What we know:
Elements lengths: L9 H21 L6 H6 L3 H12 L7 H20 L11 H19 L2 H4 L3 H7 L5 H29 L1 H30 L2 H5 L1 H16 L3 H8 L5 H30 L4 H18 L8 H4 L6 H13 L7 H14 L1
Helix pairs in contact: 3-4, 4-16, 5-13, 5-14, 8-9, 8-11, 9-11, 9-14, 12-13, 16-17
Amino acid sequence: MVYYPGTSSWSWRVLNLIQGFGPVILCLGTWFVPQSPRWLVKNGREEEAHKVLADYHANGDMNDDLVQFEMREIKAAVEIEKVGDQSSWLSFFKNPGNRRRFLVIILLGTVTQWAGNGIISYFLIPVLKTVGITSSTQQTGINGGFSIWSRWCAILGASLVEWTGRRTLFLVSSIGGMLACFVIMLGLSGGYAATKHTSTGLAMVPVIFLFNAFYVIAMTPIPMLYVPEITPLSLRAKAASLLLLSQNCAQSFNQFANPVALAAIGWKYYTVYFGAQIIYFTLFCIFVRETRGLTTEEAAVVYESDETREGALDAAYRQERPESPSGELKEAKEKVTRRA
Length: 340
């Protein structure tokens, strides 16, 4: 929401000053964020990694079973990756597992911009004008409510991730919300264009809010959580960069193509995103795998072939503690196999 009740130069200065608080808090808070235990282990600082895990997962108890288990998994995963040497960009294309990850990362990066939000979020005012809502007061009120609504829906989505699972939320977001809402939006927009009834145009407002609820419950909180989970430690930073790159490329299309298309064909342009939603839902069904309930090391092998997955889990459980109970290893294999 961008609104300031005045005509002076402070109409834009106030907004920029307010937005500056977030980065300041982030810069100050960075000094209190612990280093990643996986990075610490990879760089030979195992004691520090052990302490971080103990502090955050066991109230400082270095001998806690969960902490010991996590340390074994991390150390084994780091050793395996050292042997595999998967640190270059070309590693994304060296084996089937990494190629699947590459595809899913691009899929998530583009869907966050091409799921229809590229019109609804960034061009809300032109969308409202297509259904007869032209009052600046009404537009500002809807815009402000839209932003607040999006925030709370995103928080709800983040709280549901461990209960419903990542893949389930993606599918619900796609088929249950965005596809259904786009059908209604097409009908209402076409109806208003034909009849010019005010009630038809106003009915578009709750549908826009409903669409955005289904969008943000999955597409806002999950991608930056899911991508590091499914990627080996040596490729996690590159995977995050690839996700952001694909998002920015898709957003560039939105920035330059959407206003031209909306001006040229109006509400009929929604059919493009309706078709995109069908494609994305199909791709989610085929390629995206569940990682709920898995440790980071277990989630990282979900996309591997059966043979590679079993070998990685064997190493993770046996390399650091040969006496590890066979039941523990069997349970981990069953969990990961169900998600694959």
